[in-house]
Write a structure and sequence with these properties.
By secondary structure, the chain is mainly alpha-helical. The protein has 3 domains: 54 residues; 307 residues, no CATH class; 91 residues, Pdz3 Domain, CATH 2.30.42. 64% of the residues lie in helices and 6% in strands. The protein contains 21 helices and 5 strands. The chain has a 5-stranded antiparallel sheet with strand order 4-3-2-1-5. The chain is globular.
Length: 506
Amino acid sequence: MLNVLRSRAETLDRVVTVFLFLFVLVQPLSIAATHIAYAGAALFWVIRLVLVRRAGSYDSYELRSSPLDLPILLYWLLCALSSSLSPAPGLSWGRMRAVGLVFLVLVVAHNVPHLRRAKQLVAVLLFSGLLTVAYTAWQYLAGIGLYVRQISPASAFYQAGLRHNDFILRVDAQRIVQPQSFLSHLRAKPATQPLSLLVVHGEGDRVALALPAGAWPQPADLRALQTHLQLEPARPFRATAFYSHYVTYAEVLQLLAALAFGLFLAYRRKLSFPGIALAAIWLAFVAALAATLTRATWLAAAFACLLLLWFHTRRRWLRLALPLVLLLAALGTEAAMRHWRGLGLIDLRDASTDYRLLMWRDGLRLIHAHPWFGVGMDIIRVYWWEFDLAAYQKYRYRLHFHSTPIQIAVERGLPALAAWVLLMAVYWWTLVRLTRLTRTLAQADWASYGLALGSLGGTSGFLASSLVHYNFGDSEVVLLFWFLAGLALACQRRANTPRARRVPAE
């Protein structure tokens, strides 16, 4: 009986491994598939733990403590307490699913038994990330739809909601990138059917527009079409790849770029094929990140890479020069933003900057009014009219507070924010210690050092951008963040074993 249970546990171990590989394969591509992969890995891991205990075997599959265990538990409990005391507990508890993503750390840390497995998972993750870069390049080369340069107010398209500078992504669920193709579609479509358009207004969200049957024109040629609207092939204004928003994609790219850069720094033979390949991967992620035109994440990525150089290099002069390089990066970002977006790094004329300042001011007011347990998660999103938010009154967008610390404090209270800060501080210091430890083993175990270094940089950049982005609210980003944390803990466990100090990595 015991042998049967152990055999089943080994089978479940392989199933968990398959789900982990599925997770890294789909993580940059599909959020739904990523959640399914995480849920599958967690479910079969728990089942395996039950079987192992029944079998009386604790050697290979036993639970091991980590520095993050207590901070994770404290953070989760305080969020749960805030949800229980919320004005609408059912609504707030629905958001606890997002808080529970933190347990991905434990799933990964307990199911990566050796460095070879970690290297394989990272390789698949980088490959999947490169697929998003390739897709982004294809979008710029082939186009994403049609750009509305001008539109007549008397046109049926205008009456349906189409405006100047809009992007038409789909026409009757078809991607059309040439004005002539759009004209041909109008002429071929029966006038008895409505015309549907999937449109992006400027930098806003996607909206569906519909022109009733018989209302849309059927011009004879392009000249006649231009009396209604002037179209040209559209390229992405800001790269999004497979994500719904450019900021989400930028945050993911920042984590991947830091990981690739850390591995490159750790690899000793940088002019060999693996070293050049790692440098090329890093540059590909940086290029895609540049295409997102996201100011805060640009600077966060620069800060992350420079911090990695500070930890890696032993040259005193280079360490002293790094703050100057960061200043140059800020000046370069300022120039790029003025060229591509027509606004500065900090520009009070920018609507997004004004929105942030208004939300932060009201956020501090709400924190003062509800310091202990906050107003409740998701309460403001649903009952927004009760909180007199100036940004909601001035702009038509009802978004979050654009700052992770402020968002947590407003929704869950100052104790939950303190627990989050503790969790981040313990994790960051764990990465610092792991980086120093694996550096002494880097000649035989360069990948472990590179993973620790890359995770340290990515975490630092993530925390820096969290001051002005609510990146902890993007499950796509958070899943990658916690996955890398789990890998780091797995590497820490291996690096702390006496065997790891004596023999090369597997």
